[in-house]
Amino acid sequence: MASLLQDRLTTDQDLLLMQEGMLMRKVRSKSWKKLRYFRLQNDGMTVWHARQARGSAKPSFSISDVETIRNGHDSELLRSLTEELPLEQGFTVVFHGRRSNLDLVANSVEEAQIWMRGLHLLVDLVTSMDHQERLDQWLSDWFQRGDKNQDGKMSFQEVQRLLHLMNVEMDQEYAFSLFQAADTSQSGTLEGEEFVQFYKALTKRAEVQELFESFSADGQKLTLLEFLDFLREEQKERDCTSELALELIDRYEPSDSGKLRHVLSMDGFLSYLCSKDGDIFNPDCLPIYQDMTQPLNHYFICSSHNTYLVGDQLCGQSSVEGYIRALKRGCRCVEVDVWDGPSGEPVVYHGHTLTSRILFKDVVATVAQYAFQTSDYPVILSLETHCSWEQQQTMARHLTEILGEQLLSTTLDGVLPTQLPSPEELRRKILVKGKKLTLEEDLEYEEEEVEPELEGEHESELALESQFETEPEPEPQEQNLQIKDKKKKSKNILCPALSSLVIYLKSVSFRSFTHSKEHYHFYEISSFSETKAKRLIKEAGNEFVQHNTWQLSRVYPSGLRTDSSNYNPQELWNAGCQMVAMNMQTAGLEMDICDGHFRQNGGCGYVLKPDFLRDNQSSFHPERPISPFKAQTLLIQVISGQQLPKLNKTKEGSIVDPLVKVQIFGVRLDTARQETNYVENNGFNPYWGQTLCFRVLVPELAMLRFVVMDYDWKSRNDFIGQYTLPWTCMQQGYRHIHLLSKDGISLCPASIFVYICIREDLEGEES
């Protein structure tokens, strides 16, 4: 594939023109629009830019960081500048993770098309590369960086500099001996294949060689039976058949003769260990593998808080990009805060703050376009409506006209249901969650219908956080006064047209678990602030679990989190809360847990809860888990690391001192962390060989997070990469963990090599 890329770079007309470079306008905002000269580098993997054609250039972006290319008409920013800039000459480079989009405007439609076609081609080539092809490309990139004078050869001085860039601290004599061994032409430089051989010598995996030889009779190859023994004994794949072992040999053995003889060479063995089959994440859990025919309340649902915000909660930008990113990462519940806007058009923003405003109809159109690009399972629009009667009617019209057949506007069979429908029954449907009138209500909220606004997220959140959560609950009489006072200020009238679009998800206030059981129905849903939900878990954990077996719960971040920080969703999942809304624009540990949890089941945004969180007679208490849960002991041998990235790529002398931290998140008693020692000055192939041990009471709820840190004795250790996954999706045996960045983007080929062993605890289950 890397050679295919090189072929295209010399033959494809668009790519040839991109390598010559073009002047385009870079647009950051309505006031920042500047001409820049963009050029695709000869490696075909990076785009640089300069102020002018022959000016000093610097990297703009890497092709591997690009998710997709959009035309100008799909750019929120470029659409706002149609009077100044022609949309058909514009396009947008969309990056993986949370990096801001790059909006560009070319000098002509044809030039814009050249860049769009060329970038699409390059992105397709990169995304279709397998592990070996990515490694080849990664190696080619390093050769380009190390070859300082760009003559296609590398002297020993250039190799020494490259080793520092690659995070390798190596004895000069040993490095020179490897250099001489690879220099088969005896030219005093390394070219092409010679550099590849030098790299192979540099990355020789002694620990993998030792493992290979322990199962190989002759130390040269694994026969079909030897490989089958390895899969059954070490990889704990007890049901593995000869047919499956043969399939793996065909898949990973590089030589045709090896495939014909049904044997696996050392290179093939390493290729298997680095593949998806050798990954810590069980490939059986990657597609949709769970029962999707149970009621909605039996699933954890990937949910977003204040989805329109791409920054903080007070002054941040509101953008439809927030909805695009959330939906494309598998989020199935997005939040829309709607207020009266100018010219009769409702707007979306964080009320009573300085956040910018976007049109409600643009949000609905964006949801319609992106709702089912990642997952076919239902999307929930969580409406917080603060509009007048007239603008509520406008909202209803937009929802009906823009969403069309996607909008669920009646019960599935036209009769009153007895339980919530399943994700399978609601495929490709958009559901509205919000206030709803009943026959008994006279077009006005009853007293209990006003209360959610008091406890809601957007009625002066900071004051309410203090009033309702950090202080004790007010007395009933005092609470009634607060409600009446609120009513005097504003008595919202709910529009029947909007109310009628709420089918299965009627928002109601929560008073107590007893009150919910006696007065509410399965199609009603309550929202809880994180503070209130955590308090309820401590005070009445089992009641909360039982409540969540028949009714949906949504939890949202504290109003005090004005910086858009997050809380740990695990605490709420432990009680069976289905919709734990996250500030998805903010990377960090909490989002790693959320992303890791929803990585399973096809990334569809729905994960079936364990059976003890679906049983309405469940005795489970997240704070005090007892039998019949079978505790397990986890042994993790952290063996080695491979090609860990440098934290400061510009600082040639700095080499990382890596350590591995393993964290377990689950019920409170299972939450734990341990770490290895650090390896000094080696980010390229550090070896730890340390074993960590954990005992877990409720493995069905446990999440594992592997974090590689750069040890710093003077300050906090620096983050290098992480990988998070559910306990139930973990494969045993010798496994590679392919690291992700803070933004969840692959750091290929960075990985750590571990041995995983899970044992059933024979001591009993008591905590």
Offer a quick outline of the entry.
It holds the Pfam family PH. The protein is built from 24 helices and 28 strands.
C-alpha end-to-end distance: 54 Å
Shape label: globular
Number of helices: 24
pLDDT average, as an integer?
88
Q: Estimate percent helicity.
A: 25-40%
Name of the CATH superfamily of the largest domain: Phosphatidylinositol (PI) phosphodiesterase
Question: Unreliable segments (pLDDT under 50, ≥5 consecutive)?
Answer: 439-456, 458-490
Question: How would you characterize the overall build of this protein?
Answer:
By secondary structure, this protein is α+β, with helices and mostly antiparallel strands. It has five domains: 4-129, Pleckstrin-homology domain (PH domain)/Phosphotyrosine-binding domain (PTB) (PH-domain like, Roll); 132-203, Recoverin, domain 1; 206-278, EF-hand (Recoverin, domain 1), CATH 1.10.238.10; 296-437 and 492-613, TIM Barrel (Alpha-Beta Barrel), CATH 3.20.20.190; 632-760, Immunoglobulin-like (Sandwich). Helix content is 32%, strand content 22%. The chain contains 24 helices and 28 strands. An eleven-stranded mixed beta sheet has the order 13-12-11-14-15-16-17-18-19-10-20. A seven-stranded antiparallel beta sheet has the order 4-3-2-1-7-6-5. A four-stranded antiparallel beta sheet has the order 24-21-28-27. The radius of gyration is 29 Å and the shape is globular. The two termini are 54 Å apart.
How are the SSEs ordered, and which strands pair?
Layout: H1 2-11, H2 13-20, E1 22-27, E2 33-40, E3 46-50, E4 58-62, E5 66-71, H3 76-79, E6 90-95, E7 102-105, H4 109-127, H5 131-146, H6 156-165, H7 172-182, H8 192-202, H9 206-215, E8 221-223, H10 224-233, H11 242-252, H12 256-261, E9 263-265, H13 266-273, E10 299-304, H14 320-328, E11 333-339, E12 347-348, E13 358-359, H15 360-370, E14 379-386, H16 389-403, E15 430-434, H17 447-455, H18 461-470, H19 476-489, H20 496-499, E16 505-507, H21 513-519, E17 524-529, H22 530-550, E18 553-556, H23 570-573, E19 579-582, H24 589-597, E20 606-608, E21 632-642, E22 658-665, E23 672-675, E24 687-696, E25 703-710, E26 718-726, E27 733-740, E28 746-760
Helix pairs in contact: 1-2, 2-4, 5-6, 7-8, 10-11, 11-13, 14-15, 15-16
